Amino acid sequence: MPKPRSSHSQIGQLLIIGFDGTEMxxxxxxxxxxxxxxxxxxxxxxxxxxxxxxxxxxxxxKLVATPLFNxxxxxxxxxxxxxxxxxxxxSPAEVFxxxxxxxxxxxxxxxxxxxxxxxxxxxxxxxxxxxxxxSRSVMSSRAxxxxxxxxxxYAHEFLCGLGTAGVLxxxxxxxxxxxxxxxxxxxxxxxxxxxxxxWDEDLVPYRTLWRELPMVMVSHAAFPAVTKKRTPAxxxxxxxxxxxxxxxxxxxxxCSDDLEMGGVLAAAPIEQAxxxxxxxxxxxxxxxxxxxxxxxxxxxxxxESLVREAERDARFARRVRESERRVLAFKKKxxxxxxxxxxxxxxxxxxRVEKLTRQLWEFGEEIxxxxxxxxxxx
Length: 378
Known about the structure:
By secondary structure, this protein is an alpha/beta fold. It is built from 16 helices and 10 strands. It is 47% helix and 9% strand. The longest helix has 28 residues, at 350-377.
């Protein structure tokens, strides 16, 4: 495996990166070798088949010295990167409509098994946002309930199921997009809700599940009633360090939502240097991992800006080292063989893919019939 190149060789452990293409290329190999990221995230654009995906993730790992977080967004419903490979997974709202905790857990296990089979060890799910009226057009079937206790019930079972399959979960989008009327992919939502109300509603899933969540993803929404400004939560020390780390006592890893999203880039004071500023801002605020999911140029600029800022600012350098240590310690515990992420799985055969596809269809039918039966009883 590649050896560390400099005193800042591990700064890539603060980044999870995305890229174009469905196979290893000289350009991708160069990027991975230079950045040495904490992880890679694949989207539908990278996934054309089960064996191809497994090979791509394996080839990425060969170029990176530490175990990679092999990440995917697989919630089911509208957010399903495997749809064209294995078929459609029911949405969280559809699973929740069954009212069955056993099916909530099975949902996590089914998704976890598919992730493992293709080579993934981290799924950016479950969604912990409340299904409030304000955000219905944005969140749709991704959110399960407007009752925080019901969200906790679903998420707890889902995380248990995911874990039994050897896959890490990630609660999102802290502190909560239940009242967001704008999509953070494009704009910066401003949620004018006081901390006391957020504490009693949106933050309940994080306050309850803080020991069970391996990772928490912070959103790009602004909460001016809490921070007194329109800073996105993903760049807010108040939210990340003061509330999530100290007040809630969360001990796992904290990652940003995609730092290329319009919502967060719009908050940067200088457009040309936006990606550098938001990446540094997330780490400075107490984050551990910045997601940059698309543009190679953004990834390179963000990496260089982290190195430069750590050389320029001793306090930031300490923050960087603290985050690096936390990420590496987490990996040592969670990604070692026979631990939660388990031993490396063999490449999926066509027979295995056929079996997984059939099981997914059967699970979809089970959800449909359970929902129908529940409606008949009511």
